[in-house]
Amino acid sequence: MSSVSSSRPAAFAAACAVTLAACASPPNPPAPGPSPSSAPPSASIVYPPLPSESATITVQLNTHGLIPAVSSTVTAGVCERAVGPVAVVVINPDIPTPRCQTVAGSQGLEIVNRTGDFGSTGKTATIRWEPYPTVSLEPGQAAMFSGQFGAYLAPGDHLVSISVYAGGGAEIYLRDATQTTGPR
Is residue 171 over pLDDT 50? Predict the structure, then answer.
């Protein structure tokens, strides 16, 4: 028997011991506020839970006026309707999901970094969402942007800049800042 073959059982036993020790540890308590896995999906896509529910970052608003839209119309072509109190953007390895969302003034924004899904190597994503400070999300982290769209956005199309898409990102289309029941 070679030295490589004889070291395999020892490596396997060590891996089992680490796995069993991890199973015996109590689970992490959930982060306060809505978690990415419990937020209503903006489409019929269902995502598995994040690796760590405690990875949510809350970003505070810092503005004193409405941010003008980059366009009065949607530039992405198709724009899904965000459902529920929070519009969720998922950063996938290739494109954000959804690419564009139509939102109501009463909704908020959450962004989830899932660049490590689908067998891909995860990447840190830098998010620029005016008027908030720039946020960096590691794979598996989420950022919840405090405040409702109607409090800081003028109606129209707004771009969430996401570094992993070479300057591109996701669009948030606010149809009516005073609308509170969801876009029609």
Answer: yes
